[in-house]
Amino acid sequence: MPEHHVFHHQQEFRLESGALLPGFQLAYTTYGTLNPQGSNVVWVCHALTGSADVTDWWGDLFGEGRLYDPREWFVVCANTLGGCYGSTGPLSVNPITLQPYFHTFPQFTNRDVVRAFDLLRQELELERVHTLLGGSLGGQQALEWALLKPNVFERLVHVASNARHSPWGVAFNESQRMAIRQDPSWGNSTREAGKEGLKTARAIAMLSYRHYNTYHLSQQEPGHSITDSFRAASYQVYQGEKLANRFNAYTYWLLSKAMDAHNVGRDRGGVEKALAQLRARCLFVGVDTDLLFPVEEQRFLHEQVPGSSFCLLRSNYGHDGFLVEVEQLTDAIQDFYQQEQVKQELNYEKQER
């Protein structure tokens, strides 16, 4: 099983907005053993409500007998800055006021998050990373990090994500924040503030994470006599309550804002110029039924990054297909690695001639 650790950064940390954090901590896991060459590192960036434990939410990809077997790989995953699974976030105590941050936790961007991740990477003395892997919000962070430190990451596997968040995605996120704002408790400074609104926000989010086919296959009513208490309705309530019991509205708010602000072209002369700075070998993965991060966003990345690879996952699960269709994703990553090996062998043969 992954080993759990905590990284403490004791110095002030200036955010992109200019706000300061008086230090922070990141909860992270390691899985497997670093080889003597330091060449077997896989760093994973989790999605919006994920944690540092990759085996908890991507277990079919990580583990003995899986693609990333800990007997061969050294896997690192950190809970995002602002998170609620051990990293410094809104429920953490501000060391200056000795009170929880709550609403006073400063807004941050994905660029801030990966700068924090990079301080952890330096602490672990990982000079290079074989594969940087992330999906959804984690894919945004991974792409941002690959641009921030182009000489560190050898390969980028970017799954169901984009280079700049779309107006469509921003609208979905704002609709969820509207639900949180409507909760009368949201104005309070308590751990439970916005909890009922968070339930509604999650229900809204499910409509962007899944697809018409998902609900048709899993929530269709048997027979023809029902007129109320539909399965799809109770499913929405269940999903809202399930998240609210393990998450908090503050973190949800801040991370959705970070997703909205995602734009690798900011201060880099635009998206196309930014992508031209990538040095990692890239695999861009889309899901054919993804409504939130539609396939054209991954195809755009593939077109903009010369020599990159592209794979389309087939799924009835919409955006969540990147978490569900692990067998297809495994095949795509294996093919990505094998293509590189074939190219290296061909180049070697040409040199020998």
TrEMBL record:
It catalyses: L-homoserine + acetyl-CoA = O-acetyl-L-homoserine + CoA. GO terms for molecular function: homoserine O-acetyltransferase activity. One of its GO terms (biological process) is methionine biosynthetic process. It holds the Pfam family Abhydrolase_1. Gene3D superfamilies: alpha/beta hydrolase. Transfers an acetyl group from acetyl-CoA to L-homoserine, forming acetyl-L-homoserine. This is Homoserine O-acetyltransferase. It comes from Pontibacter actiniarum. The lineage of its organism: Bacteria, Pseudomonadati, Bacteroidota, Cytophagia, Cytophagales.
